[in-house]
Amino acid sequence: METKRLLMIALSVAILFTQEQLLMFLPNVQLTVLLIILFVSVFSFKESMIMITSYVFLDSLYMGGFNVFYMVPMMLSWYLIPLSYHTILRRTKNELKLALFAMVFGFIYGWMFIPFNMIQTGIPNFIPYLISDIPFELIMATTGFLTVLWMFKPLYKVLSDIGLETNKSIVNIYK
Amino acid sequence: MKKLVITIIVIAITTASLIIFSQLNKNDTLGEITIILVDEIGDTTFNKTYGFTESDTLFSILDGDFNLMCADNSYNINDNCDPVLFGSRVIMKIDTIETNWSDNYIGIYENDVYSTMGIDSISLNDGDVFTFEFTEIGDGN
Fold this sequence. Notes:
Low-confidence stretches of chain A: 169-175
Order of helices and strands of chain B: HEEHEEEEEEE
Radius of gyration of chain B: 18 Å
Radius of gyration of chain A: 17 Å
Distance between the termini of chain B: 53 Å
Oligomer: heterodimer
Low-confidence stretches of chain B: none
Number of strands of chain A: 0
Strand content of chain A: under 5%
Strand content of chain B: 25-35%
Helix content of chain B: 10-25%
Number of strands of chain B: 9
Largest sheet of chain B: 5 strands, mixed
Shape of chain A: globular
Largest interface: A-B, 31 and 30 residues
Number of helices of chain A: 7
Structural class of chain A: mainly alpha
């Protein structure tokens, strides 16, 4: 892997982690969905998976000492973004499509934790978990939708201008 | 313009949904509740009935009678129990019942049914019995 791209992955993880910690006082209001969609759109699938794995490991280490009930659903959820982006979303750069995806993702992210919470607490009632998480999912879905709708295009342009976009980088390697 | 309209619609729907959701949990005007504390060996260490009004919360009633400690952002025990902007405070210690979140926590039961809502989201209804039980992780019923 090109050193520049390796460094960009490391910087992406640092940006993701820092903004998350800075916005921690507002539950589920963060730029993580926007930033991961943005980075996934400029990184290759493999680079995206490396970035997400590093981010989740760092976050889990800092927040919960590698608590599997926290780390595994988080990892699975974030992996859905590169998986979806390279399959059903067909690498689209359409901000509205990506914003709708970010909105749906807000709910999927919350649902992913439910079975793990059920195992952790040993209480197998599905519905109360689902209901109690709805306000947080709503906030995350709305934040994801609005941030992607308004900020994806300008941020993508910045990353493209510095030559981070995948195709440009591959061309540069062969030069 | 299209983006602005979509933004306004989404914000309006979200705000309305959050308001409706918060209205679903309202206290009775007046009543009595019972608070029970169960320690780590399963013994009931406290059992008392309190009167409440519409403006009371489960937290304020507990706070009036017990030494409480709450979780901070990283789920470390902290004596700062100020209200949080969204969601609910997490009580880590009630008098001698102290938990560390990673191995155990204080489970809240409302009328013997496990509550998946936090203490700030629970409404008070006349005759409710709230049990605060030291619970080992993976040991729920």
